[in-house]
Amino acid sequence: MNAPATANAADAARVPLMLTELRLPTMKRLWTQFAEQSNREGWPAERFLGALLQQEMNERETRRLARARADSHLPADKTLANFDFAAVPTVSKAHVMALAEADGWIAQGHNLLAFGPPGAGKTHAIAGIGHALIDRGYKVLFVRTNELVQRLQAARRDLRLPAELAKLDRFDLIILDDLSYARRDQAETSVLFELIAERYERRSIAITANAPFSAWDEVFPDKAMTVAAVDRLVHHATILEMNVDSYRRRAALPARRQRSAPQAQ
Ligand code: ADP
Ligand code: MG
Fold first, then answer.
1. Thinking of the domain 80-248, which architecture would CATH place it in?
2. How many CB atoms are closer than 10 A to CB 177?
3. Edge-first strand listing for the sheet containing 173-177
4. Whether pTM exceeds 0.70
5. Residue of 180 and 196 predicted with greater confidence
6. Which residues are in the CB-under-5-Å shell of ion ligand 2?
7. What distance in angstroms lies between residue 42's CA and the mean position of ligand 2's atoms?
8. pLDDT in tens, 65-86
């Protein structure tokens, strides 16, 4: 009865090497502890193996999420959990929560556009959706439009624009923050159009912008390209209209608001 529980030193010495080779770091860290407990308590082999594998899977998922979040460059504190929906009556919480659950739009490569004045919460709302999508296993990239345009222009100069676009293709959603601050006088911004055209009906783009489409002539090299870009972006898109006062300004003036509206509901 006791014989099977006797550990073989040579076997034990090989285990960590094999776990390293198989890239199972959690099992490597925990197996002796689990083995001791298992020997002590007389676990069936199935239970020992199952418990160890479960730990590896749990930690692998945790590591994967942490990596995806780091790769996303999303602002860490802008989540839906701390987004105050009451501050934006034009936006339905249920609708945003459905978008955060992916409800098909990501799989179909549909887009998401948020418009409103500075401070309205566009970046926060879209970043919050981004975080929720990462939790669901999607890959998200958050980037200032200016920075991405510069990166793509550099790639074009070095004749590696297709390679750079292909790299971006691994993201289910690219969030272009502050599109209206991209300026064609940075050079020509048609790289942005190429990104939009390349992802059209395949991969999702989210955009935050102060100015809706009418002012986008400033962003693209010419009117025809503006029209073509807008056309592709809105063809399958959800638009969040966030025409509210700056959240920062409102948060800074609570006393005054209370005085001027003493019995607001
Ligand atoms: P925008 O991108 O529209 O200029 P931001 O999303 O950057 O605005 O919001 C400005 C600041 O106010 C940020 O610190 C953001 O977290 C906060 N904020 C804006 N709207 C909300 C909201 N509804 N609930 C909580 N914080 C908000
Ligand atoms: Mg913003």
1. 3-Layer(aba) Sandwich (3.40)
2. 23
3. 140-144, 173-177, 204-209, 111-115, 237-241
4. yes
5. 196
6. 123
7. 58
8. 999 999 999 999 999 999 999 9
